[in-house]
Amino acid sequence: MMAGMQVFVTEASGNGMIAFSRDGAGHIVPIHLAQGKELHVREHQFLAATDSIDYTFERIRGVSNMMFGGTGFFIDKFHSHKGDGILWLHGYGNVFEKLLAVGESIDIEPGGWLYKDPSVKMDTVVDRLTSGLFGGMNFIVNRFTGPGRIGLQSMYLHFASAE
Description:
mainly beta, 6-stranded antiparallel sheet, 3-stranded antiparallel sheet, 1 helix, 50% strand, disordered C terminus
């Protein structure tokens, strides 16, 4: 609650159908998690999951991550513990998946990634761009290094500005 995360989640069971959506244009992505597998997800992207999937989170701190609400950001961790499960995520815009080979890297704007395998390492890279005697700005990207898959979203909705 202190981190601005959901306090409760709705649970549904029984025969019938259920529908779920998000309040923005995008792509709903079903991800099958085999028993014992885990997936790391960008905060606020979770939509639904089957009951075999557990949830934890990790807070990412550091000076280079201060742009995420001033104190860093969270990565949601989903683990399929008692059998295969399905995790539904919402990505803004279109969602693409990139499979990284061992040691292969990709730089992504901080709001552009949706999920990653735990085997994919994430670092925040800050470069100083200068354009004259006193002009300049910081260029910040997340660098993901394989092996593993990374999910990308083509749009980004910052929740602080949407509320």
